[in-house]
Sequence to fold (156 residues):
Amino acid sequence: MKKVRWLLILTSIVSSILGALVVYLMLSVPNDLRADSLLKDARKNITDGQNDKARESLLKIVQQHPRTDAAAAATAALMTLAQKERDDLARAVGVVRTQNEQQTKLINELRTNLDTLKNAPPKVVTVQAPPPKPPAKKVTPKKKTTPKKKPTRRRR
Fold:
């Protein structure tokens, strides 16, 4: 009787462990499959250049399926994506800084040119008068002769 009792206890323990293992697998395998499909979608979005959609998918994987291999890969992908965006931003800031320096140099050159024009002594322009013309001979106009008046009487 003791042997049967120990055998029943042992089989109950083994069956409960197997049951727990089956429940764990039933609950975790679909999560792994869903997380893997979300990870594939996120990677496709990254290659297509849709970083915002990819970031949303990766965050969803990490939040909804935290204890999966896909969650670890999603975390690594999020870190890589953030580093890439930081590098792009640093490059853009460098370009803006060089443009700013060039514009500052140009503005300073224009200011110095303007200051030299302001502070330059006024230019004296001498205008020579044209040589005087010799006096013209006075021409006396001819006197106009008055025309003869017609008689106003009628002749008969």
Observations:
- The radius of gyration is 53 Å.
- The CA atoms of residues 116 and 122 lie 12 Å apart.
- The helical segments are 2-48, 51-64, 69-119.
- The mean pLDDT is 85.
